């Protein structure tokens, strides 16, 4: 890496450490379900033997106030906040549309919920609220599991599907992941933080996950790249 790039990366890492306090909002389909089994780690289908997948209409947070989340984060001294845009269940908190890029109609998102007529975008409201209250936004996207697509640890499982799950190949799954990351990293402005955990479905054994997963990103998202490089070292 050129010396100038190293200095640029180092300065961003230093800026990240100076922020010190951040907030993480894990809000997803699982939030709609109270006292439900087979939902370990706040993830539908993880660590259990789930036999069902909640329909998109289960997502109906009639008292949702995204600005209240951000005001609370600011009040506790947070300089940045991260939203779970998609967790292990696979429900997308934005109206994802990757059909043109993948040929797959992703029907497990706010677009297919009756909440606010299927026109609601939690990610958009979250980023807007962060801008309003002077806090930097970040996004978490689950690469480790997608129960809707019957995948675990980045790999599509060779098991029978349950009602609500979609059948995809590994190649199609990888394309969906990259297309959704492109939506998130390029449609919501400058992000200060990108979070992954566990597997990277688009990685190959000899490559660094950060390099592969960043390949579809808008090059202007330099802050997000620096944050990811910091977290994957």
How would you briefly describe this protein structure?
By secondary structure, the chain is α/β, with parallel strands linked by helices.
Q: So, the CATH homologous superfamily?
A: Glycosidases
The number of domains is: 1
User: At the third CATH level, what is the topology name?
Assistant: TIM Barrel
> Order of strands across the widest beta sheet?
1-2-3-7
The helix/strand series, from N terminus to C terminus, equals: HEHEHHEEEEHEHH
Overall shape: globular
| CATH architecture descriptor text | Alpha-Beta Barrel
Helix residue percentage: 25-40%
The averaged pLDDT comes out at: 80
Main β sheet profile: 4 strands, parallel
Number of helices: 7
Which spans have pLDDT < 50 for at least 5 consecutive residues? 38-42, 201-212, 218-233
Name of the level-1 CATH class: Alpha Beta
Q: Gap between N and C termini, in Å?
A: 15 Å
What does this structure look like?
With 233 residues, the protein is of the alpha/beta class. It has helices spanning 3-19, 66-75, 99-102, 122-132, 170-187, 209-213, 222-231, and strands at 22-25, 80-86, 136-141, 145-146, 151-152, 155-156, 193-195. It has one domain: Glycosidases (TIM Barrel, Alpha-Beta Barrel). The chain is built from 7 helices and 7 strands. The strands form 2 sheets. The chain has a 4-stranded parallel beta sheet with strand order 1-2-3-7. Strands 4-5-6 form a 3-stranded antiparallel beta sheet, with no helix packed on it. Mean pLDDT is 80; it is low at 38-42, 201-212 and 218-233.
